[in-house]
Design brief:
- The chain is built from 5 helices and 31 strands.
- It has helices at residues 2-21, 162-165, 330-335, 396-401, 421-425; strands at 36-45, 50-64, 70-72, 76-79, 88-95, 98-116, 123-128, 136-148, 153-161, 166-168, 174-178, 182-187, 196-207, 212-216, 222-226, 232-233, 247-254, 260-269, 273-284, 290-300, 311-315, 321-324, 346-354, 357-365, 368-374, 380-383, 386-392, 405-409, 414-416, 432-441, 448-456.
């Protein structure tokens, strides 16, 4: 049974990995006199048990040899904890051609939400954090200068290291003191660390003849998304039957005009109501099928916005549709269904909302990052990068597993800042690792296991 499950998971993950890495984009630098464009992406290196770390970026200024343009000039609140192992677009702006050696961040209003693992089910605590001063100004050097040519397209990748930024006491409890640690890197839209891997929003309009649609994305921006023959839609969907209302997820790469070329498009739900977040507890019937899901809510539709950053228990006894992000089909149901919901998973629940009652109609398993400390001598190599290893996680996933978490890898798994599974096998120390992939319930042990499309040594920007 486990072998069939593992093969199904491997086949699904191989497709997800290809979706995440297959986009092409215009990012050439030409010899004109026009200004260039810079896109800004954000991601996170995590702290155990922190499920939300919101920080307002008042501005980001590039410091060049001749210019100091702002690539973010209006306050933008970002939940960096949601971006563990994922990458979200924060901004796109025109800048003068120049060589930029550093970036200056002006930050304010940190808010930390973390899970109290001593309660059953776990409870969420929220702290309004304090910065050394407010607003707080921090200048960070590029490891290698960002050279932006006329008419070019460059990327600024920023990573907030929550592990080092959020101060904890001697028992590991969050104190609320925040000393921001940020890493930055110049990247290209076509680079693996320039790709957009986390973008969800409401469908605003569709231009099927023009192979494009407009997405109401995060941070108050609308983004034009283009598709091509190589864009993968989830089962049953294409640009020709895409229509409002719908909530859509996209992976892809920026183009020179600020649009995105999609490598993958997933129509998550055509309902306007949804909840998205992390599973904290599951109540099952005598057959082991989920009847209620208790979850920490990180995102909602407009009608459920009051549930953001709260814990909700949802009746899912009537849900019959279980999907995996960017995919649908028989393999999907083999690895994710009413019997395989497990604590720690990042899920999306779509449904309807009437008379103050949310009725769930579908559940989608989302890509997610999981952080842990590598367990030496835990590596098994099957063939090349196919195999597994274990790491310890003191957050939701480790709580659910009751010990070290198994990470399954494949020949398509990307090892970033690492030379592969064989090299990891020779590692004798407990090093930190970040994985991105699917969190699935092992059919034999019942524990969550990571099926990884990416394994990285954080921070991956250095």
């Amino acid at each position: 049974m486990k072998k069939i499950f593992a093969l199904s998971a491997a086949a699904l993950l191989a497709t997800v990995v290809l979706v995440g890495c297959g986009a092409n984009s215009s990012n050439s630098i030409s010899s004109g006199t026009q200004p260039a464009n810079v896109f800004v992406t954000g991601e996170d290196a995590p702290l155990f048990s922190v499920v939300s770390f919101q920080l307002t970026i008042n501005s980001i200024t590039l410091n060049g040899q001749n210019n100091s343009p702002q690539v973010i000039s209006s306050p933008t609140t970002v939940d960096f904890a949601r971006l563990l192992g994922l990458r979200s677009p924060l901004a796109f702006n025109s800048v003068p051609a120049d060589t930029y050696n550093s970036a200056t961040f002006v930050l304010a209003n940190p808010v930390i939400s973390y899970i109290d693992m001593t309660q059953t089910p776990p409870a969420v605590n929220k702290i309004n954090g304090t910065l050394p001063q407010s607003p707080y100004t921090l200048t960070v050097n590029f490891p290698k200068a960002m050279v932006v040519g006329s008419n070019g397209l460059a990327g600024l990748k920023m990573e907030l290291d929550i592990r080092q930024s959020v101060v904890v006491d001697g028992t590991g409890q969050v104190t609320g003191v925040v000393n921001p640690v940020i890493y930055i890197k110049a990247t290209k839209a076509s680079d693996p660390d320039g790709q957009i891997t986390d973008l969800m929003g409401g469908l605003a309009s569709v231009n099927a003849a023009g192979d494009s649609f407009v997405l109401q994305g995060p941070y108050g921006r609308q983004l034009t998304i283009y598709v091509s023959n190589s864009t993968q839609f989830n089962s049953g969907w294409s640009i020709n039957n895409l229509a409002t209302p719908a909530f859509v997820a996209v992976q892809g790469a920026f183009q020179a005009d600020g649009s995105l070329m999609a490598s993958g498009v997933e129509v998550i739900t055509t309902a306007r109501s949804f909840l998205s977040g992390r599973v904290l507890a599951v109540t099952t019937n005598g057959s082991g099928q989920a009847q209620q899901i208790t979850m920490w809510v990180g995102e909602t539709g407009a009608d459920l916005v009051g549930d953001v950053d709260t814990i909700q228990t949802i009746d899912v006894s009537q849900v019959s549709t279980y999907d995996v992000c960017f995919l649908n089909g028989p393999l999907t149901n083999a690895v994710f269904n009413e019997s395989t919901v497990v604590v720690g998973q990042r899920i999306f629940i779509g449904g309807s909302y009437a008379s103050n009652v949310f009725t769930a109609t579908m559940i989608s398993l989302r890509l997610q990052g999981v952080y842990g400390m590598f367990v030496p001598a835990s590596v098994t190599v099957t063939n090349g990068n196919a195999g597994s290893f274990e790491f310890s996680n003191n957050g939701l996933v480790g709580y659910s597993a009751g010990g070290p978490v198994t990470v399954n890898t494949f020949n398509g798994t990307v090892f970033y800042n690492l030379t592969g599974l064989n090299a990891l096998q020779s590692t004798t120390t407990a090093v930190p690792l970040v994985t991105r992939g699917l969190l699935l319930k092992d059919p034999v042990s019942g524990n969550p296991e990571v099926y990884a499309g990416l394994v990285a040594d954080p921070p991956p920007s250095n």
